[in-house]
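Dear colleague,

Thank you for sharing your sequence with our group. We've completed the structure prediction you requested, and as agreed, I am returning the results in plain text so they can be pasted directly into your records. Please verify that the sequence below matches your submission; if there's any discrepancy, let me know and we will rerun it promptly.
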Amino acid sequence: MKAPCGTNQERIKEISTLQQRIKELEHSEAQRKRAEEALESERTLLRNLIDNVPDRIYAKDSEGRFIICNEAMIRRMGKTSITELVGKSDFDLLPPEMAQRFHADEQAIIRSGIPMINREEPLATEGGKITRWNLATKVPLLDKQGNRIGIVGVGREITDRKQIEEALRESEARYRTLVENATDLVFRTDNTGRLTFVNPATLRITGYEEKEMIGKQYTIVIRPDMRDEAMKFFGRQFVKRIQNTYSEYPMLTKNGQEVWFGQHTRLIVEDGNVTGFQVVARDITERKRIEEALQESEKRYRELSIIDDLTQLYNSRHFYFQLKIELDRSNRYGQPLTLLLLDLDDFKAFNDTYGHVEGDQVLWRLGRVVKRCLRETDFAFRYGGEEFTILLPMTTSADGAVIAERIRTEFKKETFSPGSGQDVHLTVSIGLAQYKPQEEMKAFVHRVDQLMYQGKKNGKDRVCSEP
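Please find the predicted structure tokens below.
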């Protein structure tokens, strides 16, 4: 007997449903495997990332025992695998007081839930001195229900940075000690020249208080007549970026006393921009005084070497030196130049009669008359004995004759009293000529000398020049 048709159809349907369910389960299993593989891949990637960062990453339970950590932490603890650290604490490796403090900090984080961000902590000490430093961040470790069951920490060794910072602090401390105790002036300005720092020596020497200087232009201490020059000098250093310069300027203290200082000025450059100047200056007042005295002495020596002691006119040696200068100038620029040669009339007879002391008085008085009659641009010389020469730059022979006549008449007015009740007047004979372009020096002097002797032959007490 055959089964009912409906029964077969139901079985076929059940088989089909079962097959569909098997396919779904197979598909679900494939998805699960793919998900597990993806998750494992992500875990491996995350682990690789964590293990290859230089920072130490770890998780600890509430008692401070390691739950997990990365390779950097394993190496830091001197271990070779994570199994050597799990369940262990790092507090045993620290000095007792440091371990107690770290443990208390971690307990506070677990209790409060407040993380600790980027705090600098010592890692190791030796002889009471910290030898290693750590930059630590610690946050609470939560379970699935959100309960705080430990901490997650990230640590970065910053020993090198701390050593550099310590070296900088020590360097700055030494520098400040040197600056504060220096006898030299040390000050800084911004890029507009306003003072931003002055050391005690600057205040002591200038007499100002710090509040009177900070924010003011550095030229406050430079003598007023030198301020423009100083601003140009340092402005050029600023524009041309000259790293170091040396200069000397007179400084006025608050009470008006002048002090010279020599200063070394260095540009302050930050991020490629000039932000100001740093100056170290030394009081050189005594050196300047000695230099000025030496210069005055040298000037006096030069004057003594070219000045005639008796008449206080230039001597014959300087005559030829100055004559060459004036001849060169005349030839170069075509300017006129006139030379006078004076000789006292009958001076030998006066000397023989009244003596050399009275004769010297005559020479001295003639020197005074000559100076009185000349301009600032003229030069007068005692040529030798009773002879005198005069150089008149930028002067024609006609104008020179006027000056010569003035000297002749003024000297004739001089009264000499070489003996009791005696009044004597002396005269001079003067020869003069204008320089001819490219004429030799000796020829020029000889020409004037001949004119002077011609005046003597013609009766003395006269000025003789070329027609």
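Summary note from our side: The chain is about 45% helix and 25% strand.

Kind regards,
the structure core
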